[in-house]
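4.2 Preliminary Data

To establish feasibility before requesting continued support, the project team ran the inverse folding procedure on a target of 284 residues. The structure was first converted into the token representation described in Section 3, and no sequence information of any kind was made available to the design step. The complete token record follows.
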């Protein structure tokens, strides 16, 4: 009887985690570059009442005295086993801002985080007063400064902060599909830099940092960096950003299933409590 109550409590906790994930997905339905998550559930500890056994045979092995026996076990509920980020690509949202970039394929923009890198799918960019290319949060965007060429395969060994010292002297600054930033000065078009995109072998291993950033902590493999459209990275589409991949129809469906699961587990606790009450009242 008490096992049923413990199972119900475990189920409540598991479904609460599931509802927390659903709530975060729905809250970010209009967040650019957001990647929704899902919750998977697993059963937990089992108490074995009787173990399994093979059948007993006569000494001549021609017939059995007893048949085999299957185990008898009682479980102790469920748990939220994992919360997985769904790294599916979503649609392009036109913004009308020339500094916005949408990655049409695989890859992540690279920004500086102290001595490390952070990765994002949100390409809202512009130059600050010092000529540094920054994103919408003020983080420094990385790639190659100037007209330095990439390797033949487009690979960038070590992305650095993109800086244009005299940025105010250029006009008609644009970003191409290959990540090259160009500007016009004195009637001459000059390459000011190249935006790097990161190829992450295992994107599911990225750790979410908030503000649409991811960090390669472990189990991601070694990131490699390329100019947009080379390696396995996609090209850039300007004046657009990536929409959230939250599927509202799926989230509301999962909300109903999760709510009913929570309700059913709460009923187990209620019924177990009533049975305990009946047991206590046997002696009046």
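Position-by-position output of the design step:
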């Amino acid at each position: 009887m008490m096992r049923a109550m413990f199972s119900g409590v475990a189920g409540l906790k598991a479904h609460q985690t599931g509802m927390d994930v659903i709530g975060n997905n729905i809250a970010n339905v209009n967040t650019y570059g957001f990647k929704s998550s899902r919750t998977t559930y697993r059963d937990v500890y089992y108490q074995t009442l009787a173990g399994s056994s093979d059948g007993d045979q006569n000494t001549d092995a021609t017939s059995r005295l007893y048949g085999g026996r299957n185990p008898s076990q009682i479980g102790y509920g469920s748990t939220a086993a994992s919360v997985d980020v769904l790294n599916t690509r979503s649609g392009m949202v036109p913004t009308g801002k020339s500094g916005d970039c949408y990655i049409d394929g695989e890859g992540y923009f690279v920004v500086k985080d102290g001595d490390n890198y952070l990765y994002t799918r949100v390409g809202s960019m512009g130059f600050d007063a010092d000529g540094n290319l920054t994103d919408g949060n003020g983080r420094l965007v990385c790639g190659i400064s100037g007209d330095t060429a990439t390797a033949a395969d487009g690979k960038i060994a070590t992305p650095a902060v993109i800086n244009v010292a005299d940025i105010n002297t250029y006009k008609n600054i644009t970003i191409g599909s290959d990540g090259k930033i160009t500007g016009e000065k004195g009637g001459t078009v000059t390459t000011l830099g190249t935006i790097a995109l990161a190829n992450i072998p295992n994107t599911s291993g990225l750790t979410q940092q908030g503000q649409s950033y991811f960090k390669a902590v472990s189990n991601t493999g070694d990131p490699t960096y390329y100019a947009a459209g080379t390696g396995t990275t996609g090209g850039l589409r300007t004046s657009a950003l990536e929409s959230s991949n939250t599927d509202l129809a799926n989230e509301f469906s999962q909300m109903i299933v999760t709510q009913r699961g929570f309700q059913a587990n709460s009923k187990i606790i209620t019924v177990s409590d009533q049975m305990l009450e009946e047991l206590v009242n046997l002696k009046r």
